[in-house]
Amino acid sequence: MAALFAGPSVPQRPDPFEVLSRASSRLRRFNDLTKELAPTETSDIRVLEARLRSGTSAIESGRQALQALAELKIQKRMPLAGIAEHENYVVSHLAVAASLHYGSCEQMLERKLIKELGRVPNQRAELVVLSADAIRQQQPEPWLALRAHLLDALAAMEEVCQRVKSPMTGLRPSDALRNNLPVARAMMGSCHERMQTVRGILVEIHSKKLYDQAYQYGLFEVIDRLRELEEIDSLRHAEVGEALRHVVEVHLECMSSTGHSLTPERLAMYKSVVVDYAEMRGRAGMQLCVDAAALIEEGGHARDHLWATMLDLAQALTDQRQAIVDMCQFAVQDRQLIGAAVASPEQRPASLTTSVPTTSAGKSSRSRKTRTRTPDVSSWRQRPRSGSSMSAALRKSRPTRY
């Protein structure tokens, strides 16, 4: 009888100790297995897709472990020294997982660029021209999936940096993790660069699709707007290419933290060139969407299916613009870090104290450690290959006609 009046049962949450143990084990197993496979590069897309899925799962396990550790701290079920030790262990493994996941993303990107888009391996960025026909054969979904994987790797590395700088317990992080912060920053810079490539290709895919649909319905105003976008690239290709080259190299200089090739003023100049390019494309893209929307409305329901293509292109252009801005801001932050490491307080230029918006990995309970069992982090000491993937503006297709 009492059961009739009992309230609804509340599902019992897993014990944080169990979550911490299981998630940490999954993360460690992924790292151990992937480090054995990582030296063997593969062009088999199914193998790469499986690695990417496993990487996403491992990064999620790392986040679950850190969340469980935060709950144990709030519940005061573990001494601070124990929390610091476990946090150091999990964050170290998360850094390795993020590095390995980024490596899989890089392999997938290279595979698609060479096998599907016809780029010559090791071709200089300035010489890359992607075929319009090759772009037309692409579907956006695989590129959107690759973009999501890069975002996962980037967010995980941001999480690592944040937790090294702001430990959960307030205790000093391990020297191994602190010494690898420049490596994490360099890898984040490479993620921004690869992200720019992927986003640029998505713009091209949607541009070609809209062009073909506009041509079919005789919407020549839309075609003219699309050609304006192409003209911006053609006219500013050399200038923007040079500026991008300097911007994306800054994060690699953070590896040594001992010197820099650009003054803050020169970097600001290059940043201005790249951001101005992004803004010009943004304005042209906005006008394109306004004109396309008006023409689609005039055509009635017969042109309804063009809406989806136009909105996809608008989103891709917005995403690309933000990627360029993020990449430039990240380079400025790296330049400030390098300058702060080599300049004395009296010599440090005023620009080093300028506030620059930072990207955040998301909500996280703060965390770090004093003494710990640290996994091998040598795998994320590998220098990212700047030349192996180009920024989107340089990878963009620039055929003489659509």
Automatic annotation (TrEMBL):
Biased composition (Polar residues): 375-391
Region described as Disordered: spans on this chain: 343-402
Annotated protein name in UniProt: Outer protein P
Organism of origin: Xanthomonas phaseoli pv. dieffenbachiae
